[in-house]
Amino acid sequence: MGWRAVGLLVICWTVVPPKIVRREAAAQAPWGARNDLSGAIQVDEADSATRTHLERVKASIADQQWDEAVDILRQVTESHAGKVLAVSPRRFVSVRDYCHLQLASLPAEALDLYRRRVDPQARRWYEEGVRQRDARRLRDVVEQLFCSSWGDDALLALGDLALEAGNSGMARGYWEKILPPAFWARLAPPVVQTNGSPAWLLYPDTDLDPTAVRARLVLAAVLAGDALAARQSLEEFARDCGTAEGKLGGRQVNYAEFLGKLLAESREWPAAKVDRNWPTFAGSTQRNKVLPVAPLAGAIAWEAMLPEVPAVEATGSAPRRVAERRNQLLSYHPVIVDNLVLVNTSDEIRAYNLATGEPAWGDNPVAYGLRKRDVPARENLRGVSMSVGVPRFTMTVRNRRVYARMGSPLTSRINEPLLFARHSYLVCLDLDAEGKLVWEVSDRLDEDENDRSWSFEGSPVVDGDGVYVAMRRSGARPQQYVACFDPEFGRLKWRRLVCGAETSAPGQEETTHNLLTLDDGTLYCNTNLGAVAAISTRDGQVQWITRYPRAGQGELGKRPKHSYRDLTPCLYHQGTVYAAPADSEMILALDATTGLLVWQTSFPYDVIHLLGVMNGRLVASGDRLWWIDALRGKIVSPPGTAAESFPEGGSPKGLGRGLLADGKVYWPTWDKIYVFDQRADRQLEPVSLSARNAVGGNLFAAGDALLIASHDRITMFHPESFSPLAKPAEADASHAAREREGRR
Known about the structure:
Blueprint: H1 8-12, H2 48-62, H3 66-79, E1 84-88, E2 91-94, H4 95-104, H5 108-132, H6 135-144, H7 151-164, H8 168-176, H9 181-185, H10 210-224, H11 227-241, E3 245-248, E4 251-254, H12 255-265, E5 290-291, E6 300-305, E7 320-321, E8 324-325, E9 335-337, E10 340-344, E11 348-353, E12 366-369, H13 379-382, E13 395-398, E14 401-407, E15 410-412, E16 424-430, E17 436-442, E18 454-456, E19 461-462, E20 467-473, E21 479-485, E22 492-500, E23 510-511, E24 516-519, E25 522-526, E26 531-536, E27 542-547, E28 571-573, E29 576-579, E30 587-591, E31 597-601, E32 609-614, E33 617-621, E34 625-629, E35 635-636, E36 659-661, E37 664-668, E38 672-677, E39 682-683, E40 687-688, E41 698-702, E42 705-709, E43 713-717, H14 728-743
Parallel strand pairs: 5-36
Antiparallel strand pairs: 1-2, 2-27, 3-4, 6-43, 7-8, 9-10, 10-11, 11-12, 13-14, 14-16, 15-23, 16-17, 18-20, 19-20, 20-21, 21-22, 24-25, 25-26, 26-27, 28-29, 29-30, 30-31, 32-33, 33-34, 34-35, 36-37, 37-38, 38-39, 38-40, 41-42, 42-43
Helix pairs in contact: 2-3, 3-4, 3-5, 5-6, 5-7, 6-7, 7-8, 8-10, 10-11, 10-12, 11-12
């Protein structure tokens, strides 16, 4: 069972945690027998020797041999990086955190012994971290010496730094670990394991004031901008601690009164500044960008033609995938940085001037192309044999450098002769040098130069310390890895196994494009192989792995709609991770710090895009558009209606990925973009694409300028009132011709 809800519930537990949906994958295959996937997954579990050591710890504790128990736990903590252990049937944590859990449960005498040994080091790290405001040094305390006397102080300081940086969800995750287990045990259901210990890592005996910590949690809710959650959290806090006083905001205050005034003032606060660039898939590394300005769609400003992606998927002849036509694949997801629009194919990166659509440099938009020997006769896309899945093209830009995955889109290969081996590459280009290649890395890394089973899955996410990318290793049970490369030179820094599992296409070539999600030092990975995971960017340490119920994939050509989630990375929002795996009917909400289940639902069955969280709603789409209560997982009616989704009937159907901006949802179909104003709870006048001689596709934006990436072009619209470039009759005739072409 999922043990807790986050957001409002985690901050101060103002209501009873919602009933978690525990619906097993229901048999709903009218097309015939299902190909049910095994729920078994392979993870990098600690070996038998480690388990033997941990059994010795139990025996030592039973015999009150504290010296031996502490020594073994310290030894195991320091020597088994990267390994995991199960703490429940569906959740794994790192061996390091598992040992911290054991230390936290020791009696006071044993804990005092442990602290005498580690406190000098913990104190040096803590004081250095506070003095230099260095979150890395404070994380050393929390990650390596959690149960030291300085662990709770480091958690408090890390939360303060995170809140100052605007990351209220991360701050909450740190502060929650300070509250004593007794606080969490009062919940219904109690958030403890069957043996009475906490279900996640909590500091065992803090001497910090828990009321002050709870006040900080309410403060985080206020600063997060969710007025409803903040108000309910404050009401609960006031009932429990209404007269409590302490320091907050640099002065001595009555907590409840101070927070109440702050909440009232927050209604007048200006919106947080949001970067108007669109530097990666979904607009941000959290995959949750909400633009501050509503894009406007006037007449077409320019169009740039792109090569159509051939429909080679070995899944029958049905005319549609979900939110996409099979013969007009919406594979392009461009990025925008400054005055440039960038888009890639399997072997090229193209650059256009945002204002004019002209090539960014010279007469040719192709800024970079793979060497011809690396692109064997373009069979990367057309294929000698049919594969399961379709190519997708994404990129990331950071600090004027472009990072892209290039080459063959195949990620699971079979019987591939060395002579015809198809590779994938990571490339880094310098925009200040007109797209000059900085470095290129093949999937056949130096340590695996004779191993042809590796592939890069999708474009990387990047921070100042690393270029992080998902990698797949082919085999009877494909394996998902996460790798980190040096941003300057492309050297491999680390690579970590997440999990392996069977897929719905055994013995067939597969094309996948898994993307990572990045927030403040943690990577979140939706593997589509039975698990979601969190990995530290510092060293690749797996923080947690959570399994979910896998579902059948149906007969070839009659796939269930959830199996089309081939580009659905995790979405991070204020301490919660949302995932929509391709191998499950479920949409999941997980606590970002612990991996504990918040809620799961299988009701919005056609969802393949998680567009973002706005005004307390997770907006998701596929053939239809859905709103889901972000805290509880319940379906919410579309703005201005009492329906369960939009549209109520079977038409129109979605076509591509929408976007969120200025409290509004933009959802593309073939001939219109439907617009919903969540703040005013109403549907607005749709944007007519047919009147503009355009068709739907993946939406993206730069400031108030709207762009669409369709199956064969990028279209940019003037950010001004509509003034058609073509006469209405000409536009209607041209649009009708494109419609007929699309149906063929």
